[in-house]
Each structure stands twice: as structure tokens, then as C-alpha cells.
Specification:
single chain, about 230 residues, alpha/beta, Rossmann fold, 6-stranded parallel sheet, Sirtuin, NAD+ binding, transferase, NAD, EC 2.3.1.286
């Protein structure tokens, strides 16, 4: 309860909050993380290739099969972490910057979400550029209007983060009074580098099962994020 009270007190005392979220936030919703035992990459010798621009361009069938079978969890529902962050928007200026591509923050009702690595449910045709519903993509990788190959608008290995996403993320970090890192080892660049652009007056909390280290003063809470947010 002490950790809950610490975060509650920090939230109560500020106006602008940024949550930086990772795979650990969505695991309780039934979406596996990437590298842990039983995670998405288990059993694959070169999983990064399967999620690369090279695979999409050179072997679109291989890319499509992997993404369709392993990445989509349309029945997954937001858990207490997503819902609490959305709830806080009623009284606070909240921005969520997430590594996750599952769209669960949006499903929970959060309005200001920066999908740092894109969103699986935003799909478009590479030939004509038209937006395509994810439900159509899951039926066929080919656009029924022009025959082009459809892709989800996510950042693949070999691709860069858009300038707009970077600039919007940096702006949010500069304005935040409170930064809360949740469910991520915070090692993947450039996501982890966002901390360098923080408001240096901001208080920083991290909630993760394993301690993370950053080049800034931090209140580290080694705990199950779901259990903590259920009590907030």
C-alpha cells in the first residue's frame, strides 16, 4: 500500500502526466511480450527478420503469415492499467507514449496516445495508399480495390520512427510534471532516449517487475503493475 500511496500522492499534486508504457502493460490482457519465455519470439531463429521491412518487401507472404498468426489479438480487452490511465484524463492532462502496437490504450478510452511504434489496427495499401480496415487485412494481404499489398502501419526493423512522433513525444516530455514508466525494461532506443528530453523538474516513477536504470533520479517500484494499478 505504501507504493500505491506514493504514486497517488504524486498524481494528486500535478497537472501534466506522461505515461511511458511497454509490453508488460498488455501481458495481463493476454498479449505476450516479445523475448521472455513463451513470448512472441519463442521458437523462431530470426524473429526480427520476420518483422522487418526486408521481409515485407522480399517475402510478403512470409511476413503476412507471421503477423497475422502471431501479432493480432482482436479479442484482447484493456486491463486495469489501461483503464486507470484513461480514467485519469477526467481530471489531469495525460499523454501516453507507448511502445505497444495493440491499440488497447485507445480501446480503454484514452484520447492522447502516441503510438511510438505504430498501431496494428491502422492498415493501408502500399500501392494506392488507401486506409484499409484491419478486419480486411486479416482476411487477405491484397487490397480488393487495386490488388496492392496491404501492411499495418507499424515501425518494422529497418524503418525509422516518424519525425512527427518523435517531436510530439519530446514536446510531451518537456511539459510533464510527472513521468511514470510502466511495464518496460526501458532499453529499446529511441524510446528509452525520450527521458533525456524530460522536464528536469518532473518527478519520475517506474513500475516494473525488474528494476530499470536511467540517467535521472527515479522512484523505482519493483512490483506487478496490474496489481498496483488495481489499487490506485
Amino acid at each position: 500500500m505504501e507504493n500505491v500511496k506514493k504514486i497517488q500522492s504524486a498524481i494528486f499534486g500535478v497537472d501534466k502526466i506522461v505515461f511511458l508504457t511497454g509490453a508488460g502493460v498488455s501481458v495481463p490482457s493476454g498479449i505476450p511480450d516479445y523475448r521472455s519465455k513463451g513470448g512472441l519470439y519463442t521458437g523462431f531463429e530470426n524473429p526480427e527478420y520476420l518483422l522487418s521491412a526486408a521481409c515485407l518487401n522480399n517475402e510478403p507472404d512470409v511476413f503476412y503469415h507471421f503477423v497475422k498468426e502471431k501479432m493480432y489479438y482482436p479479442k484482447a480487452k484493456p486491463n486495469a492499467i489501461h483503464l486507470k490511465m484513461a480514467e485519469l484524463e477526467r481530471d489531469k492532462d495525460v499523454t501516453i507514449i507507448t511502445q505497444n502496437i495493440d491499440g488497447l490504450h485507445e480501446k480503454a478510452g484514452s484520447k492522447r496516445v502516441i503510438d511510438f511504434h505504430g498501431n496494428l489496427y491502422d492498415c493501408y495499401c502500399q500501392k494506392c495508399g488507401l486506409h484499409v480496415p484491419a478486419t480486411s487485412y486479416l482476411k487477405s494481404q491484397f487490397h480488393d480495390k487495386c490488388g496492392g499489398v496491404i501492411r499495418p502501419d507499424i515501425v518494422l526493423y529497418g524503418e525509422g520512427i516518424s519525425n512527427e512522433v518523435i517531436s510530439n513525444s519530446i514536446l510531451a516530455m518537456k511539459k510533464a510534471d510527472l513521468i511514470v514508466i510502466v511495464g518496460t525494461s526501458f532499453k529499446v532506443s529511441p524510446f528509452c532516449n525520450l527521458i533525456e528530453y524530460r522536464n528536469h523538474q518532473a518527478t519520475i516513477f517506474a513500475v516494473n517487475k525488474e528494476a530499470i536504470r536511467i540517467a535521472a533520479p527515479i522512484h523505482m517500484i519493483e512490483a506487478d503493475a496490474l496489481q498496483l494499478f488495481e489499487k490506485l
